[in-house]
Write a structure and sequence with these properties.
mainly beta; 15-stranded antiparallel beta sheet; two-stranded antiparallel ribbon; 27 strands; elongated
Length: 266
């Protein structure tokens, strides 16, 4: 009888210990700022042994390069600079985030934001359609619910147009770009890549014009505003740098050198 009671007590004790001492789900990891972040998995450390990135075990306020905090969502990846300041994370709630120009952009909850080392916004998803300045001093109206990226100056680098828009080129002329398509500009605010709203003649590095098709992405040598690549609206002979011509048919993507000579037609 005593052996049976002893066995029952041992079984009950083992069951109790198993319930009382569950395995730890997360790990507190030190950051370069000297604070700890509670990580669930995918922990990566920098060369100093401080947290570089991990999947967060709980919603966490993480400091930025400006000394402010962003509330970052559990179960998502957070990445830090070696300083311990936030580099990338997923927002728990929609948040106004400062740009390098001293203005704020309202970023969508549940989406990833990226900050520069000084804590200014580099990339994120807009809550609503927003006018964002380019380095030209003009504004482009960017579509809500889409991603935008900024230069370290706080000026627009890339985003999605709300409606068809004239965008200035490095030649000082405008190209009419299709709404709801992606546009990118260089650090001076000149058009780099966009989708034409209509068939358009675009100047090349040779000073001639190429007739480019609408509804297709078109790229320029942004600083000078000459054609780099587009889908041809009509067939044409294209000069090469060796003095010969190559025939490129309509519907093919023509790519040119900065001097305006044939590079490829695919």
């Amino acid at each position: 009888m005593r052996d049976i009671l002893r066995l029952l007590m041992m079984t009950a004790c083992s069951a109790f210990l198993g319930m009382a001492l569950p395995a730890e789900a997360g790990t507190n990891v030190r950051t370069g700022a000297g604070v700890y972040v509670y990580c669930d998995s995918s922990i990566s450390l920098d060369i100093n042994g401080n947290l570089q990135s991990c999947i967060l075990a709980s919603n966490t306020n993480i400091i930025t390069g400006r000394g402010t905090y962003l509330y970052v969502k559990a179960g998502t990846l957070a990445a830090l600079y070696t300083s311990g300041d936030l580099q990338q994370g997923t927002l728990v709630s929609s948040t106004n985030i400062l740009t390098a120009r001293g203005t704020y952009l309202y970023m969508q909850w549940g989406t990833v934001v990226a900050l520069d080392p000084l804590g200014y916004l580099q990339q994120g998803t807009l809550v609503s359609s927003t006018n964002i300045p380019t380095a030209q001093g003009t504004y482009l109206y960017m579509k809500g619910g889409t991603s935008v990226s900024l230069y370290t100056t706080g000026y627009l680098q890339q985003g999605t147009l709300v409606s068809s828009t004239n965008v200035i080129t490095g030649k000082g002329v405008y190209l009419y770009l299709l709404g709801s398509t992606t546009v990118s500009v260089d650090s001076f605010g000149n058009l780099d890549t966009g989708t034409l709203a209509s068939n358009t003649n675009i100047i090349t590095g040779r000073g001639t014009y190429t007739y480019c098709a609408s509804l297709q992405p078109t790229s320029l040598f942004a600083s000078v505003g000459t054609l780099f690549s587009c889908v041809l609206a009509t067939s044409q002979n294209v000069p090469t740098s060796s003095g010969t011509n190559i025939y490129c048919t309509a519907g093919k993507r023509l790519t040119l050198t900065s001097s305006g000579y044939y590079m490829s037609c695919l």
